[in-house]
Amino acid sequence: MNTTQARQARGQETGSVKAVTQVHRQGSAHMVGDGFPVRNLIPGDGVDEQLSPFLLLDYAGPAYFPPTDTPRGVGEHPHRGFETVTIVYEGVLAHRDSTGSGGIIGPGDVQWMTAASGLVHEEMHERAWAKKGGTLHAIQLWVNLPQAQKMSKPGYQTLVNDDIPSVDLEGGAGRLRVIAGEFRGTSEAMPRGIRGPAKTFTPVHLYDLRLNAGHRTDVTVPAGFNTAVFVLQGEVSVNGSGPVKEAELARLGTTGERIVIEAKSDATLLVLSGEAINEPVARYGPFVMNTREELIQAVDDYRMGRMGHLG
Known about the structure:
The protein is mainly beta. The chain has helices spanning about 5-15, 45-50, 125-130, 290-305, and strands spanning about 20-25, 30, 35-40, 55-65, 75-80, 80-90, 95, 100-105, 110-115, 120-125, 135-145, 155-160, 165-170, 175-180, 180-185, 195, 205-210, 215-220, 225-235, 235-240, 250, 260-265, 265-275, 280-285, 285-290. About 10% of the residues lie in helices and about 45% in strands. It has a 7-stranded antiparallel β-sheet, with no helix packed on it. Mean pLDDT is about 90; it is low at about 1-15.
């Protein structure tokens, strides 16, 4: 065994590189309301069980919507027991809910909504944008809450593009934005300790990554965390895997820390990594709790108006 082979063997023994365990393709393609044509990756074929705390990943678009005076979207609906994370790449979305909160997010912005004990809201194409028409391109991710926080007060974090720190990758490889958690580059030349603005109930790392064709980058996430790389656009290799293409999700093993991503073409990626919540999961539509009895209570509370309604 030569020196290079010895180093590689030691790296495999210590689990420094996270192996790709499976590449998932969309489980379904469907419309959510009349404004969000999505391809679903999580839960897909049971991948949510492998990726706690992440419960759902819907990839919306990119899709062109012609001008209209009646904004499209998703009307009044409830949530309880988890968080929704909406990342906008193109288009403009407007939100309002039964707590009286609301807001608008556009390209580069992120809305992190903690539904917790429950609320009713709507997500629509923003009116002025809808009048002009345009391309919608977004992701919605659901993040579970631990049992102790499921009935806490709802809340929002609007993370605008200018407040999300970004890192220029070495050698002109591209850029990485830190939405949640901390950026941990593997090179001494890269800045470290850059933290995203999102406040999370359990440890979560979420990176928006743009990688230029022919380049590669290394990032590290904690050993033991559930981790995946989702390709919005382009084609990449993850830790020496075969090609991972548009709307595909590479799930990585929990052993090791290092992720090496090589771009075969210009690529837009979402890297998600989080500590598993080792608690029972009971889910029914927009409710995610720990027991069937809690789901029944959630449905009853919504029907009785205890989560409020939109005027």
